Automatic annotation (TrEMBL):
Residues 179-322 form the D-isomer specific 2-hydroxyacid dehydrogenase NAD-binding domain. Keywords: NAD, NADP, Oxidoreductase. Residues 37-353 form the D-isomer specific 2-hydroxyacid dehydrogenase catalytic domain. This is Hydroxyphenylpyruvate reductase. GO terms for cellular component: cytosol. It comes from the Eukaryota. Belongs to the D-isomer specific 2-hydroxyacid dehydrogenase family. PROSITE patterns: D_2_HYDROXYACID_DH_1 (PS00065). One of its GO terms (molecular function) is glyoxylate reductase (NADPH) activity. It comes from Rhododendron simsii.
């Protein structure tokens, strides 16, 4: 009797080896919690777990890696790319692409996908939150109320309620609490009217603010006044909110001249990249009282933050966390998976970055 042969089932290790290989040099911050999802669909080549120097590790996988996951802090430059001749796709977890050499990617025929507009609403919310905090001194007032309550021997929560309700005279000597500013009617200049900038504009219009903007190009689809020169924008607004990408043109765009144009009553909010501002000049202006305040989610030399800013009540600091909500992180993971699946299926990327 002839027996029909049946293929033996592949074991899990063999199945994993047959999955498309995806290089990860340094994992995105949330990667540990979702690594299993990626491992079920891709064979992850984990450089960060290897004892080999990076160049040797990349050379060992030079001809079998066609896609790569890049974190927001992973530099993807010619030194990295020259070791990866088969690489054809980079998917980054970030909306920003300042760590990826797009010109070199274009030269090598490598497509790039980023987080698109996934984070736009959350970052815009953070920009408005920082702005309101700077204008209304929310954090400073909380600290003051807590300190007064502690000095009086009262529990923190109860002391704040009692102070606000019954003893406003205790605040009379506090410069912090005598320097509130309102938001309605303020002239807001947005630097970078992309998806995040538009979300910021939409929110601040609801507060009654007047919006104007500076971008690489004027946008015919919007009615806000356009300024081709950021210094002119600063001259004609009370608040500058930075939403632009970091590149050679925007590095230290906000310099001494722009800060002088913004003036002593001006406020600046940065949810873009730290190096868009000349940080040393910003610190000097804030310490000397030459601008009214700042809300900063990003810094030039992260994770380092200028210590001169710590005691200033008119400065609100956030540790580069504008994008970190549960909802947006989930959406970004789904988008990364979808972009990788699209690439390996020879379909268009969902959020391709244009190589201009």
């Amino acid at each position: 009797m002839a027996y029909q042969s049946h293929p033996q089932p592949l074991n899990l290790a063999t199945k994993h080896q047959q999955l498309p290989k995806v290089l990860v040099i340094r994992p995105p911050m949330v990667f540990k919690s979702v690594e299993t999802e990626f491992s079920q669909k891709f064979h992850l080549v984990k450089a960060w777990e290897s004892p080999l120097p990076l160049d040797q590790f990349l050379a060992a996988h030079a001809h079998d890696v066609r896609a790569m996951i890049a974190s927001a802090v992973t530099p993807v430059n010619p030194d990295v790319l020259r070791h990866l001749p088969s690489l054809r796709c980079i998917v980054t977890s970030s909306a920003g692409i300042d760590r990826i050499d797009l010109s070199e990617c274009r030269r090598r025929g490598i497509v790039v996908a980023n987080a698109g507009a996934v984070f736009s609403e959350d970052v815009a919310d953070t920009a408005v939150a920082l702005l309101i905090d700077v204008l209304r001194r929310v954090v400073a007032a909380d600290s003051y109320g807590s300190n007064v309550g502690a000095a009086g021997g009262k529990k923190r929560r109860r002391s704040r309620l009692l102070l606000i309700s019954y003893t406003p005279s205790l605040y009379k000597n506090s410069q912090t609490l005598n320097s509130f500013l309102n938001l309605g009617g303020k002239r807001v200049g947005i630097v970078g009217l992309g998806s995040i900038g538009m979300e910021v504009a939409k929110r601040l219009e609801a507060f009654g603010c007047t919006i104007s903007y500076h971008s690489r190009k004027e946008k015919p689809s919007v009615s806000f006044p356009f300024y081709s020169n950021v210094c002119e924008l600063a001259t004609n607004c009370d608040i500058l909110i930075l939403c632009c990408a970091l590149n050679d043109q925007t590095h230290h765009m906000i310099n001494k001249e722009v800060l002088l144009a913004l003036g002593k009553e001006g406020v600046i909010v940065n949810i873009a990249r730290g190096a868009v501002i000349d940080e040393k000049e910003l610190v000097r202006f804030l310490v000397q009282g030459d601008i009214a305040g700042a809300g900063l989610d990003v810094f030039e030399n992260e994770p380092e933050v200028p210590r001169e800013l710590f005691p200033l009540d008119n400065v609100v600091l956030s540790p580069h966390r504008a994008v970190f909500t549960e909802e947006s992180i989930r959406d970004s993971v789904d988008l990364m998976l979808a972009n990788l699946e699209a690439f390996f299926s020879n379909k268009p990327l969902l959020t391709p970055v244009e190589n201009e």
